[in-house]
């Protein structure tokens, strides 16, 4: 639909420019309107004061912008064509003024007369009329008559008029080409630049989202994966290692699971399993073995066994019910179709049988007698060579029972031979229509007796066939397009139309006498029977014998039964005499049941099975990957190491790559292996991949692939808030859309302020929960005063209290600022050293909250102030500390220690020229606004 709309707009613009001719002002106006209708430009209109469609159009109509837009698009060929058009118009008008007759009437009469002579007399009469007209004109010229002069001037005026029309067409083509180039190369970029200029500072900070950002709403949707350094490094290691165990470590949300899923998907054979939160090695290995067997059976095209809890009778009844339903649906189509085919082709088949039955039976009888004589000769020993040959053939056939080439060769011969034979039979049956003398005689008779009716039927039938073919193409295109809330499929629309068109075509051919005579040929049922038989034979070429279950699939099936079922067998024996009343009997019963495999046995069976699968897949040029995810959710590093110690027995299978997702502390233990002691990572892991948080460049590429509306300022904000963690990066990208929808503001200054304060409120709520578990006294109440005040403000962030929120946030952010470097002044917020009764844990939590507030305050100072682009360039002049990447580094450092994060934030604030202490007299100048909640004028930080 979009391509069709663009095509219609393109040709509509060309037609408009063609009709405009030499009016360059109209073409320029049309190009400006088209540039304003561009989606990327139109979405920016009306988002800031003074940037409207009429304002931009008025600017573009001025002489300055008109000259600037057109000077880059030379119109020399267009101007030359216009000059030639004016000259042709002048010549035509002079010739028309020199004659006393109306040249249009004279030329029209001459043309109508010539057309009448051609229609009623033919080409010969027209030639005679032309010669007569030439003789008449020569006579008038010889006599010097005035009529000759007027007639000649009329013809000259008509010729110059045709020349003017040709030149007008050339002007229209030049106008269309110039208008297309003007719109593409000049007015389009000029209007876009003008709109951005009228928007003022930071035009990219406007966040104008689409109605539906699927890439952000579905973080795990396929098709949005971006290549990064960790993935390339892992692929290189998998390429260079024949087998081994590779650990993938990194912070939570960095994309370890996505990395494992992509590697498993790309491998020739892969299984990914989640580590249990409360691990039990036996249960974990049992689940992994089941998934391994089921995955292999599905890849080989065999269904894994289903272990239902229903009784055998109910399973049998359900299977019978499903088969009966399937058979009933198949029969509802097969039986009527077979009945109609038998009824329609019975006469042709009977005639064919009567014609060839005797000769076929004689042929079969002759060859059967010959074969019987040969067999009897071999049986009686009269054909020694044939006996030896047959004996050798039997031995070779028995020896070839395990050879794969023989059934493959027979299957290929069957598939290709029977299909080609069927197609040959179908085409040969259809081609007999051209060789049938009776049909050819009927066609010649219709050609000589009813030619016009025959051609009309052929033309109309061809048109109907063409329409039916187009409808079938539209039906099979698979195109779907949105229509409001519904998705309309062309198949549902054109399927009944194609059926109706085909039915009407058939009825039309049957109803017309010309085609009915041809269809009524007595040989047509036999031809149709040959076509049906040929099609059925070609379809039979697709038949494949049921594949024999490979030995490894059988082993997987038996292993699944061994793991998931408990099998029990009972044998009974009863002995006794013939007379029951006088005999003594005995009864012996034996019961045997399987024992579930223990952990060592399960490990051995798993390794053997995986070794066989790996050998087969590697022999096919594929890789085998077993991925174990979510090991880092087991808890502390000691539990993760204990889990690795327990499952170490299944690692190290030849030709198998193990990928294990672990926490950063486990990866750190592997990196410092042997210093000063060894642990389980030394012997369990062969290599390690560190999935680092994304850089700003990688975050930009990730968000650009998922959303076209997130520009550079929005990417910087999401990257700084997330610290480069992929999961949080996508969450903040979606939260930008949520905040915009809630505030109905397109400015980053407003959106970022609400987003940062909202995140701060949620984080402080978590800190309050942790602080509530500490021991507090009446003397420590002053320490938490600013914290409680800030939390209460964050619960009600309306414009009435936003200035107080920023003031309290600043006081709490600089809570520990300079506590060891300068003495306390009057009015300073309370400090931790002044509270000796405060516990170390409480002081640690308050310091963490204060540093996070300091980081949030820094983001507010950077992103909620106008002129972000200009200030970003100024900060970049201060070196690496002014790089926006430093904001993400500070966010990552908050997860390590607040005491190391605060100095890093200080360096960032220095580079951005932000104060390193509380400001006096307010942080930002206020501006008067109306509070929508309390209905009165308040001040809001501008």
TrEMBL record:
InterPro entries: P-loop_NTPase. It comes from the Bacteria. Residues 919-942 are annotated as: Disordered. The chain crosses the membrane at residues 125-142, 327-349, 377-398, 455-473. Keywords: Membrane, Transmembrane, Transmembrane helix. This is Uncharacterized protein.
């Amino acid at each position: 639909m979009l391509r069709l709309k663009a095509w219609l707009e393109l040709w509509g613009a060309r037609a408009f420019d063609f009709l405009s001719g030499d009016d360059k002002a109209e073409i320029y106006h049309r190009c400006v309107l088209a540039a304003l209708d561009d989606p990327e430009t139109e979405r920016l209109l009306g988002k800031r004061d003074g940037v409207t469609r009429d304002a931009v159009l008025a600017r573009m109509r001025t002489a300055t912008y008109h000259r600037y837009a057109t000077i880059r698009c030379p119109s020399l060929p267009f101007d030359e064509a216009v000059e030639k058009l004016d000259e042709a118009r002048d010549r035509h008008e002079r010739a028309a003024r020199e004659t006393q007759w109306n040249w249009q009437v004279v030329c029209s009469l001459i043309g109508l007369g010539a057309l009448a002579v051609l229609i009623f007399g033919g080409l010969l009469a027209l030639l005679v009329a032309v010669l007569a007209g030439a003789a008449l004109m020569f006579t008038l010229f010889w006599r010097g008559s005035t009529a000759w002069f007027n007639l000649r001037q009329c013809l000259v005026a008509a010729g110059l008029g045709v020349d003017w029309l040709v030149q007008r067409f050339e002007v229209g083509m030049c106008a269309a080409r110039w208008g297309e180039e003007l719109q593409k190369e000049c007015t389009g970029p000029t209007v876009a630049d003008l709109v951005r200029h009228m928007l003022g500072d930071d035009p990219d900070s406007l966040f104008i989202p689409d109605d539906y950002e699927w890439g952000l709403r579905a973080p795990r949707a396929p098709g949005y994966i971006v290549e990064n350094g960790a993935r390339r490094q892992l692929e290189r290691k998998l390429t260079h290692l024949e087998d081994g165990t590779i650990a993938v470590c990194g912070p939570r949300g960095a994309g370890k699971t996505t990395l494992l899923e992509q590697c498993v998907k790309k491998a020739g054979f892969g299984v990914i399993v989640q580590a249990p939160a409360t691990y039990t090695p036996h249960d974990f290995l049992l689940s992994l073995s089941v998934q391994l067997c089921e995955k292999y059976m599905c890849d080989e095209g065999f269904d894994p066994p289903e272990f239902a809890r229903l009784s055998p009778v109910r399973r049998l009844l359900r299977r019978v019910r499903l088969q009966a339903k399937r058979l009933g649906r198949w029969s509802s189509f097969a039986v009527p179709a077979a009945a109609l085919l038998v009824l329609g082709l019975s006469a042709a088949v009977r005639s064919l049988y009567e014609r060839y039955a005797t000769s076929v039976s004689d042929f079969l009888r002759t060859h059967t007698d010959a074969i019987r004589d040969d067999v009897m000769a071999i049986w009686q020993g009269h054909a020694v060579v044939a006996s030896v040959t047959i004996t050798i053939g039997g031995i070779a056939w028995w020896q070839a029972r395990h050879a794969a080439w023989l059934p493959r060769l027979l299957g290929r011969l069957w598939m290709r031979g029977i299909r080609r034979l069927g197609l040959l039979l179908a085409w040969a049956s259809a081609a007999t229509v051209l060789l049938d003398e009776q049909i050819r005689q009927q066609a010649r008779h219709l050609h000589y007796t009813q030619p016009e009716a025959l051609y009309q039927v052929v033309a109309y039938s061809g048109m109907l066939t063409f329409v039916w073919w187009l409808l079938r193409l539209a039906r099979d295109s698979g195109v779907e397009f949105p229509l409001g809330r519904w998705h309309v499929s062309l198949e549902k629309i054109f399927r009944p139309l194609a059926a109706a068109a085909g039915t009407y075509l058939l009825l039309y051919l049957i109803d017309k006498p010309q085609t009915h005579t041809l269809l009524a040929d007595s040989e047509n049922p036999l031809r149709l029977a040959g076509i049906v038989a040929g099609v059925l034979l070609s379809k039979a070429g697709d038949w494949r014998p049921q594949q024999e279950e490979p030995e490894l699939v059988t082993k997987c099936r038996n292993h699944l039964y061994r793991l998931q079922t408990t099998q029990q067998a009972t044998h009974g024996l009863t002995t006794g005499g013939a007379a029951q009343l006088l005999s003594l009997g005995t009864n012996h019963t034996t019961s045997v049941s399987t024992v579930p495999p223990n952990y060592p046995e399960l490990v051995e069976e798993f390794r053997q099975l995986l070794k066989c699968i790996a050998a087969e897949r590697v022999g096919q040029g594929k890789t085998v990957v077993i991925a174990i995810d979510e090991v880092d959710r087991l808890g502390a590093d000691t539990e993760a190491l204990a889990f690795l110690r327990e499952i170490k027995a299944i690692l190290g299978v030849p030709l198998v790559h193990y990928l294990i997702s672990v926490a950063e502390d486990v990866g750190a233990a592997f990196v410092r292996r042997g210093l000063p002691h060894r642990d389980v990572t030394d012997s369990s892991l062969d290599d390690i991949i560190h999935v680092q948080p994304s850089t700003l460049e990688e975050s930009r590429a990730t968000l650009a692939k998922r959303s076209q509306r997130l520009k550079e300022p929005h990417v910087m904000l999401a990257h700084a808030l997330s610290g480069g963690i992929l999961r949080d990066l996508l969450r903040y990208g979606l939260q930008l859309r949520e905040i915009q929808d809630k505030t109905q503001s397109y400015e980053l200054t407003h959106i970022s302020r609400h987003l940062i304060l909202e995140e701060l409120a949620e984080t402080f709520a978590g800190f309050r929960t942790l602080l509530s578990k500490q021991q507090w006294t009446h003397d420590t109440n002053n320490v938490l005063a600013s914290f409680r005040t800030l939390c209460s403000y964050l619960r009600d962030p309306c414009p009435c209290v936003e200035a107080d929120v920023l003031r309290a946030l600043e006081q709490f952010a600089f809570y520990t600022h300079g506590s060891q470097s300068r003495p306390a002044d009057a009015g300073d917020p309370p400090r931790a050293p002044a509270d000796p009764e405060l516990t170390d844990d409480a002081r640690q939590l308050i310091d963490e909250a204060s540093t996070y507030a300091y980081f949030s305050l820094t983001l507010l100072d950077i992103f909620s102030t106008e002129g972000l682009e200009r200030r970003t360039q100024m900060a970049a002049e201060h070196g690496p500390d002014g790089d926006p990447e430093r904001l993400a580094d500070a966010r990552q450092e908050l997860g390590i220690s607040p005491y190391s994060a605060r100095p890093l934030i200080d360096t960032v604030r220095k580079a951005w020229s932000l104060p390193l202490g509380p400001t006096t007299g307010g942080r930002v100048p206020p501006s008067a606004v109306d509070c929508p909640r309390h209905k009165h004028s308040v001040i809001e930080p501008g």
